[in-house]
Known about the structure:
Elements: H1 9-15, H2 20-23, E1 28-31, E2 34-38, E3 42-43
Antiparallel strand pairs: 1-2, 2-3
Amino acid sequence: MGMTGTQKVTKFFIDKKVPxxxxxxxxxxxxxxxxxxxxxxRIDESVKVTPFTRNVLKMELFLA
Length: 64
């Protein structure tokens, strides 16, 4: 949140100093082919919850 423009996921992980072992296990959510959430790290401004939000999709990740 707060970022403008685009950035490759690899560069994002490097800039955030995410270890390579964690990068491969980090889920990435897409909406219409666009990354909207790097789970545990950043959500896109276009899908954040605001006072004007009318619908919310709740998701849970279960690791087996």
